[in-house]
Amino acid sequence: MARKTADEKYHRRGFKLRREIQALLDRDYRSEIVDHIRERGNVLQADGLTLRIADEFGFCYGVDRAVDYAFQTRARFPDRRIFITGDMIHNQSMNDRLREMGIEFLSQGFDGRPDEAFERLTPEDVVLLPAFGAPVQWVRKLRERDCIIVDTTCGSVLAVWKRVARYAQKGFTSIIHGKYYHEETRATASQTTRDGGNGKYLIVRDLRETGYVTEFIRGRMSADELREKLGHGMSPGFDPEEDLQRVGVANQTTMLMTETMRVGEEIRQAMADRYGEENLAEHFELFDTICSATQDRQDALFRLLKHPLDVVVIVGGYNSSNTNNLAIIAAERVPRSYHIAAGTNIEGDVIRHKPPGTPLDPRQEVEERGWLPEGEVKIGLTAGASTPNSQIGLAIERILKARGLAPADVFAANS
């Protein structure tokens, strides 16, 4: 049998099977409840309860595409072993659904180290790259194993990768605003080694860590102190004295937009203070790499919060960065804000949720009674970009039942 060409082994455009799998996608991820509320201006009212949903929420284009391609891949290769390098997206129900389809995971979540698992792959095996992408060295190993690769990496992530690769090729160090352990950030950092790049990066999680960098740039912190504080986010062999002379700022696409902007501005100002405004272009670059879907969902939440609300419910995986940021925004404005992993987290008077700002870890979940006030109550609801409408609809159904309302009766009255 002739060896397949590289193009036949690498796929980024699906297999033109959307029509064949559409019924499965609708069954698993569509919600008539959500459709009903959207058709009525995103508001539902019944017996003293007003429920408003944000005008942008749930699956973004990149996630929808990744899910679509995963289903198409199973349809295209019904008898092949199919693997995925790690979580497809940060939504447990989605990842569980892939397992039901017989797709095996080569690594799990933030602890992904699939190097040994790669050794059992054969040229007949199919490997999905998730929406977050995969590090350069992983893709290289998959190509060495001659696997069939289906790449679902989000286009917004690819845009950041191009920027980081360009920084590295120009000899700039990439300062990446993101979580150093996150799959997307690790994949982005690896792009500094592409096409002759210098391989230099420094990951900062927030404004506090950014402050360490600016203190060093201004000469107020030693290289050893900076290594002690941020060594976990530095590229191998990182030398602050040498590698922070020329920097370009990028970001994990799901971070808070306002924080990413401040990170870039604070580093820009520090570089201007050190080298002079007139020399800044030789030492600093910043381009807008905020994911439009992340920004749209944050902007939609701000609009939702302009309405008087007693309670806000945010639906999405606890290890989802963009969902956690929505929860932080809501909690700063509405004290009764609840980040739930799924609709099943609401059981009458009890809600299981993750307090905002706690680590991206399911073990942070707490249980609270009396979460829903009696009498007139106004509830706002949104969801992260990896949350399917089916989970959002289930959350709405559980909210109605918590008020003693039959969903079918409510929707009939609102028709």
Characterise this structure.
This protein is of the alpha/beta class and 415 residues long. The protein has three domains: 31-60 and 293-413, 4-hydroxy-3-methylbut-2-enyl diphosphate reductase, catalytic domain (Cobalt-precorrin-4 Transmethylase, domain 1), CATH 3.40.1010.20; 62-153, Rossmann fold (3-Layer(aba) Sandwich); 156-290, Cobalt-precorrin-4 Transmethylase, domain 1 (3-Layer(aba) Sandwich). It has 17 helices and 17 strands. The longest helix has 19 residues, at 257-275.
State the domain count. Answer: 3
Q: Quick one: CATH class of the largest domain? A: Alpha Beta
- How do the strands of the widest beta sheet line up side by side? 1-7-6-4-5
**Broad structural category:** alpha/beta
Number of strands: 17
Gap between N and C termini: 61 Å
Strand content: 15-25%
The portion of residues assigned to helices is: 40-55%
Give the averaged pLDDT, no decimals. Answer: 93
Oligomeric composition of the shown chains: single chain
Helix tally? 17
For the record, what is the CATH homologous superfamily label of the largest domain? Answer: 4-hydroxy-3-methylbut-2-enyl diphosphate reductase, catalytic domain
Biggest pleated sheet: 5 strands, parallel
Question: What's the shape?
Answer: globular
Q: Uncertain segments of ≥5 residues (pLDDT<50)?
A: 1-6
Radius of gyration: 23 Å
CATH fold field value of the largest domain: Cobalt-precorrin-4 Transmethylase, domain 1
CATH architecture title of the largest domain: 3-Layer(aba) Sandwich
Organism: Rubrobacter taiwanensis
Keywords: 4Fe-4S, Iron, Iron-sulfur, Metal-binding, Oxidoreductase
EC number: 1.17.7.4
GO molecular function, one term: 4 iron, 4 sulfur cluster binding
